[in-house]
Amino acid sequence: MSGPGDEDPDGAARRRVNGTPVPGAARQRFTDGRSYEDGLPYGDAPGPDAPPDDDAPPGLDVLPGLDVLRVPMPADLGIRILRRAGITDHDYDRYTLLDGPVTDLFVAFGRGAVTGAAPAGRHADAEAFEEAHLRLTGRTALPSRKPLPGVVGALRTGRDRTLRYDYGTLPEARRRLLEAVRTIPRGQLRPARWLLREAGLSDADAAEVPAAVRANPAPVLIPVHRLSDEEGRSVACGLPAELVARLRAHEGIDEERLVRFSADGTHWLGSGTTRIFCYPTCAHARRITDRHRVPFHSAEAARAAGFRACLSCRPAAA
Q: Which residues pair with 113 in a beta bridge?
């Protein structure tokens, strides 16, 4: 319905955009005489921010005022569409970009379990993470505004005991090794021999340790950066060395202290008061004063001296 002042002196109709009359908007024409009233779909006309189209007729006018109608697409639009279509969330994964301890982290999840994770710097953008997740799991991941319950707390505290992981087709031995990695306390390190024992595997399965680490679907969350060699040095865990160093420093691991112990041949520390020996990064070992600290190069030497293994870090014989 037209109102007063809705006609221009030359007779061109005015169109209202957000209640504001826009002169001439209803009868803008192409150079060949066609107008939007002649049945041309609005989708055929470029928006105000569209790049130049070399194939478009010269002199193409664009409806003014449409830029005010543009709004950001909701992060979970894809999920809403699937739900409206009757597709349940069991048929796809979701993911969020979260603040990690030293880096942002993509975390994908589905059916109540973490299905994948990756430091944001590993991928150019969210679409690249989606493509990588699809290749690794065969499942589509859609952006979501709500993370999996418990994952924010796990990133904040470095403890993920409340989370479940979907390992897909990963062999049983590698699953057990990754589950053993999850038990390494924040700020502590464990060698491969310890990991094999905790996973219930023999020394003959040692080759499974690097294979399990490379197949880790959720680095940072599953803390493979807490693995070390027998000297306490970091091992290849699928993450950049610089990121591993930052994660360890964030957790309070004193690398210089470990280097000094390694240079002295110290792999275990005993307490002269409790007669217990531990890994150097064990919380109990860090409380041993210099006066009562007894260094050992092997677990056998510690036991021969009458020391018992710590029940917390459970040192494994080398």
A: 110
Residues 176/215, Cβ–Cβ less than 8 Å: no
Q: Is 135 helix (H, G, I), strand (E, B) or coil?
A: helix
Q: Model confidence over 195-234: pLDDT tens digits?
A: 999 999 988 888 999 999 999 999 999 999 999 988 888 8
Alpha-carbon torsion (155, 158, 163, 168), positive or negative: positive
pLDDT at 29: 40
Take residue 180 and report the two structure tokens written for it.
């053993």
The kind and range of the H/E element at 110 are: strand 104-110
Question: In this structure, what token pair is assigned to residue 261?
Answer: 């112990």
Distance CA(226)–CA(135), nearest Å, equals 27
CA proximity to 307, closest of 78, 284, 220, 183: 284
Counts for the chain of helices (H) and strands (E), in that order: 9, 12
HSE at residue 300, side-chain half, CA atoms within 13 A, is 1
Half-sphere exposure of 262 (CA within 13 A, CB side): 14
In Å, what is the CA distance from 289 to each residue of 22, 93, 271, 272, 313?
A: 81, 50, 8, 10, 18
Provide the strand spans (E) within the chain: 14-17, 20-23, 93-99, 104-110, 113-119, 141-143, 190-191, 227-228, 268-271, 276-278, 293-296, 308-309
Cβ contact 118:167 at 8 Å = no
Cα angle 68, 74, 78; round to 5: 130
**The whole model's pTM is what?**
0.71
Helix (H) or strand (E) holding 21: strand 20-23
